[in-house]
Fold Mos1 transposase HTH domain-containing protein.
Amino acid sequence: MDSSRSAQRAVIQFLRAEEEHASQIYRRIKEVYGEQCLARCTIFRWCHRYEAGRVNIKDLPRTGQAHVVINSATISAVNELIRQNRRIITREIAVELSISKGTVRHIIHKSLGYGKVCVQWVPKHLSENQKIERMGVCLTQEFLH
C-alpha cells in the first residue's frame, strides 16, 4: 500500500468530498496507514484546504531565494573579497553582497574549495602551480640554512 503523503492527501480529498468530518478522516487514515499516517493537525489542515476549494494534492511552489544567486559573478566576487582579506567572516561577505550566509558558505566550501585555518581562508587543495611554488620556497629555505 502506498503510504506517501500525496496518497494520503488523495484519500483526505476523497473522504472530504463525501462530507466526512476531519476527525473521522483522521481515525480512518490512522487505522489504515498506522505509523506512516500524517499528523492529526496536518489532516485537519488539508481538510480545511479542500473545504476552501483546493483541488490539487501536490505542494504548491514556495517562495524563496532561487538558485540563480550562485553564478560566476557571485563566485568571483566572494573570491575577490576573500583575497582582499583572508580573515573576513561569512557574515561580512553576506552583508557586502546581499546574499544569505548559507549561500556564502556553499560558495566558499564547494565552489572555491576554501577552508579556515588559524582564522584565515586557505585553499583546501593546492593547484599544481602552487605546489611547484611552495617546493621552490622550501628548497631556497633549505639552501639558506
